[in-house]
Design goal:
There is one protein chain. With 318 residues, the chain is an alpha+beta fold. The chain folds into two domains: 3-106, Beta-Lactamase (2-Layer Sandwich), CATH 3.30.450.260; 169-312, Alpha-Beta Plaits (2-Layer Sandwich), CATH 3.30.70. Helices cover 42% and strands 20% of the residues. It has helices at 3-13, 31-36, 47-50, 62-65, 122-158, 169-182, 196-203, 205-222, 247-262, 288-304, and strands at 17-21, 26-29, 51-52, 69-74, 81-89, 92-99, 186-193, 228-233, 236-242, 273-279, 310-312. The strands form two sheets. Strands 2-1-6-5-4-3 form a six-stranded antiparallel beta sheet. Strands 8-9-7-10-11 form a five-stranded mixed beta sheet, with helices on both faces. Strand 10 (273-279), helix 10 (288-304) and strand 11 (310-312) form a beta-alpha-beta unit. Helix 7 (196-203) runs antiparallel to helix 8 and helix 8 (205-222) packs antiparallel against helix 9. Residues 184-315 form the GGDEF domain. It comes from Tranquillimonas alkanivorans. InterPro entries: DGC-Regulatory_Protein, GGDEF_dom, HNOB_dom_associated_sf, Nucleotide_cyclase, Rev_trsase/Diguanyl_cyclase. This is Diguanylate cyclase (GGDEF) domain-containing protein.
Amino acid sequence: MTGADTDVALDRLMPMHLRLDAALTIRHAGPVLLKLARSQDLTGRGLTEFFDLDERVAHPTVERLAGRRLNLALRARPEVRLRGLLAPYADGAIMNAAPALSGLDRLRDHGLELSDFAATDALVDLLFLIEARSLTLLEARDMVSRLEEARRTAESQAVTDSLTGLSNRRALNEELERLTGRGAPFALMRVDLDDFKHINDTFGHASGDSALRAAARALLQATRRDDTVARMGGDEFVVLLADVTSPARVERVAERVLSLIRGALPGAYRLSCSLGSTLSVQYTRPSPARLLRDADVALYAAKAAGRDCHKMFRGAAA
């Protein structure tokens, strides 16, 4: 077999080999090494000119390198690290190389594909496993992301009214427990749309839903970011005004709510509401149930006064 025939065979069987002469000058390089060298012509270059050898190899010769496990790095691309084994051959040597295990998952970054390696090379199986692991990790990350998104959606839906996007009864109860538990001052305002049944019966449920959404937007517009606006169900809403201790401040918010609700719907639709409020500072030990009940008393007083107005509860402390 001629030298050319040997090179062709080794290119197929050991695509990361070098054929060297006795002085460790490269006479032929396998196609994968050429690919890593970005197709430079390596013929005639010294082994140590192309590779940075293990520091323990001083004054390398065929005899000193033969049979040793060599740790190699391309001088032009030091991030490309290889393992090598050199054996004497004819009047020189053959050195075969393989990617270092620590760099297997970065082979694609170096422009290498599975098809670059011999089919019998165990490295192909390792690369398949690495590829499978990468795909599995991507799938796992995607699954975790989707599960996290589903969890956030479920949590949001659990405390959100689906029609208006406001907090729901559960979220309101949790916020009431939090506020009363830490003794923070606040006002509780109950909101009930006037003649909502008439809107549903006259214009249909779709119009009723539109009215509820318009009322929700008006309540959000009338309040601050730190306040809580919740839909209790039907046409009943509750507003928690954080850090409010003054009836005058509640009255100002109420006037704004009444005004915005009146203009919430266009054209022939006329919307109004009745409001009943109470202040937590009126109570020695405020409880959510007591606050809701007393605000409801004030709400009925507003209904009895002709609707489209606001009443404050001013009962005895308890």
